[in-house]
Specification:
The protein is α/β, with parallel strands linked by helices. The chain is built from 18 helices and 13 strands. Strands 4-5-13-10-11-12 form a six-stranded mixed sheet, sandwiched between helices. It binds ligand F0G. Ligand F0G binds at residues 128, 130, 153-157, 224, 255-261, 318-319, 364, 366-367, 394-395.
């Protein structure tokens, strides 16, 4: 069986190559830019390779009742739209995807937005959205016969890669910035048997070193410069469109780090539109942390045309990235979709995370930038009350329990960061209290807290 229908097209110069011709660093030999997976004929109105929209919708829904593992995966359920393998039998899956789309009733009311949802990608097998991309790219690595895979990571990519490599029987090499990733994520890489190197550098430094390594050794690079990652990461767009009965929300809000996910979701919606599965496209906005905001700065100064790398600092360690690889792709999707890119402060992130938590939807700090960003957009009049908005929550709350405990104990933020928000923060804090081991003491403590 040959399910493979793709080629790679350079985002910068438009050069087209076959998948097998890609260089180990996935950079274009002509111009050095990144590739995108392209399927011949999809963007033409007619053509023999264009799938039939009605049949696809029916098939994808039917697969929800199937017990085949490929059908149980929320990525491979949509495999007609990611024909990247010679044989789908080579897919490595942990039954990723099929994540919940939760209504956010309290936040919607507080913000005066009619329809607000959270697409919780933290509900994936390793607790982040990276699983959807990893199932795709690691399957390609296996099909092409690699024994080793590698990534530089702020933690979630490495956790996902290590798990999928372990399932496929491949070895994995992880480069992480020492002391700058959350323990939950490091523990996963260890547990899944990765060879983990902590480098005295930041994420951007780890990327530089890994790029040199893959040119010298037969190791398959699984950072998001690998275009197959994005093929998996586009599938939440299909799930969202399906959940809204093949209409699309007005606005999708995504955190921005290395800036691949926003473009992957944008690609997903674009392909649905090209193939006639949806009638329009959502706005896509990207939110960064104030201390790791190269794209937000780029939009402020050049409408996303030029980017100056920054030295990144934020407690939202997942997005502590100063020189994002996929910034051009993200800038295009923000511009083309009519979205915005902005940054939010450490206090705004912490407050938004606690508010989501109070609504029963924990997430990691990097995910909470989406709610913080929506508040800004709403205050600036950029989101109307009648709009349907989806926040993409990218990671599970247990990834970074230290952050959450620090917030509730009141040790997370500095006085300077708290600024005028002290009261807002105090009403959200729920520290654990030490109480004598008697019913009377617990009841007295309860009474005191209520009073
Ligand atoms: N949210 C979380 C939880 C992440 O782990 C990341 C990226 C992002 C958002 C940003 O996504 O890079 O596509 O803009 N984490 C990477 C990692 C860099 O190594 O795990 P992006």
């Amino acid at each position: 069986m040959n399910d493979n229908l793709h080629q790679l097209s350079c985002f910068g110069c438009g050069a087209r190559i076959s998948g097998a011709e890609a260089r180990p660093d996935f950079r274009c030999a002509q111009c050095g830019d990144l590739f995108e997976v392209e399927y011949a004929g999809w963007n033409q109105r007619r053509g023999q390779n264009r799938p039939n929209p009605g049949a696809l919708k029916w098939l994808w829904r039917e697969r929800r009742c199937s017990s085949e593992s490929l059908d149980q995966s929320g990525v491979w359920r949509f495999r007609e739209l990611l024909p990247i393998l010679d044989n789908f039998g080579n897919a490595v899956t942990l039954w990723e995807g099929n994540t919940p789309l939760y209504p956010l009733k309290r936040a919607a009311k507080a913000l005066g937005v009619d329809q607000l949802f959270a697409k919780h990608q933290g509900m994936n097998p390793t607790g982040s959205f990276k699983d959807t991309g990893m199932t795709a790219a690691l399957s390609v690595a296996r099909e092409r016969g690699f024994e080793w895979v590698a990534c530089a990571s702020t933690g979630n990519t490495s956790a996902a890669m290590a798990a999928y490599a372990a399932r496929a029987g491949l070895r994995s090499l992880v480069l992480i910035p020492e002391g700058k990733i959350a323990w939950g994520k490091l523990s996963q890489a260890m547990d899944y048997g990765a060879f983990t190197c902590q480098l005295k550098s930041d994420f951007d430094g780890c990327v530089r070193i890994l790029t040199q390594i893959v040119k010298q050794a037969p190791i398959y690079l699984l950072n998001s410069v690998n275009p197959y990652r994005l093929e998996g990461q586009k599938t939440p767009a299909f799930e969202i469109a399906e959940a809204f009965d093949w209409t699309v929300p007005d606005h999708l809000i995504v955190p921005g780090g290395n800036l691949a996910n926003s473009s992957a979701l944008g690609k997903g919606f674009r392909e649905l539109h090209e193939l006639g599965l949806v009638a329009r496209l959502p706005r896509i906005s990207v939110i960064q942390a104030e201390g790791a905001n190269p794209l937000a700065r780029s939009f402020a100064t050049s409408n996303g045309e030029r980017l100056e790398p920054v030295e990144a600092h934020t407690r939202a360690t997942a997005i502590r990235i100063g020189n994002p690889a996929s910034w051009r792709k993200a800038a295009r999707i923000v511009r083309d979709s009519g979205g915005w890119c902005l940054d939010v402060t450490e206090a705004e992130i912490a407050i938004a995370k606690a508010e989501l938590g109070a609504e029963g939807l924990g997430c990691e700090p990097a995910s909470a930038v989406t709610l913080a960003g929506l508040k800004r957009l709403r205050a600036d009049g950029k989101v109307a009350s009648t709009e349907t908005v989806v926040l993409v929550l990218t990671g599970h709350t247990l990834k970074d329990a230290d952050y959450t405990i620090g917030f509730h104990r009141g040790t997370l933020l500095t006085q300077k960061e708290i600024g005028a928000r002290a009261t807002e923060i105090e009403t959200l804090r729920r520290d654990a209290v030490a109480v004598d081991a008697t019913p009377e003491a617990v009841l007295a403590a309860l009474k005191e807290s209520a009073g």
